[in-house]
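Example 3.
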Amino acid sequence: ETGVTQTPRHLVMGMTNKKSLKCEQHLGHNAMYWYKQSAKKPLELMFVYNFKEQTENNSVPSRFSPECPNSSHLFLHLHTLQPEDSALYLCASSQDGTSGGETQYFGPGTRLLVL
Amino acid sequence: GQNIDQPTEMTATEGAIVQINCTYQTSGFNGLFWYQQHAGEAPTFLSYNVLDGLEEKGRFSSFLSRSKGYSYLLLKELQMKDSASYLCAVRDGDYKLSFGAGTTVTVRA
């Protein structure tokens, strides 16, 4: 238990569906992250939020839409996804995203399958 | 982009020692992390190195050479529960964290 929770843990959706992934952290952190993890590939950073403001969008397609209503919650809204978007989506949090030695704490991820 | 290389897979016997190497080429450097990830679970923090040398933490040690762009994670007295993926991650000059693809370690009885 890292203090970062994600729901749902598993999700199957069609290409025309709309769904949302939720992340919540109970660590009092101010930075939150979305990563995509595909088999045998490095974790890919998607979005970064610091103090609720988006500070990084790593050239992510617009079919992925993040939302950060407060420092404890992060959402990833999904619509018209493609089969190649099937992956493990990991949320992480850290103190404030500005310190070199700062550790990121990860949630267990949402395993997404797009049919 | 950043370039972080580590072996894809390693196998070792229970009680043995395994060394996982990581080489990196990044724009600037603000530290190197090792994470452990069991199948279906969250990556969990193992170690952080920012200065050259060896950091020891129980059965796990991590080494860094900044001039060589090189690190290793040393796992001693291997246990079955150490079977997992080990991720090397480097924080660059812009404080962005980039990950390697991970090394899957299988511990055999």
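Chain B has a mean pLDDT of 95. The first strand of chain B starts at residue 3 and ends at 5.
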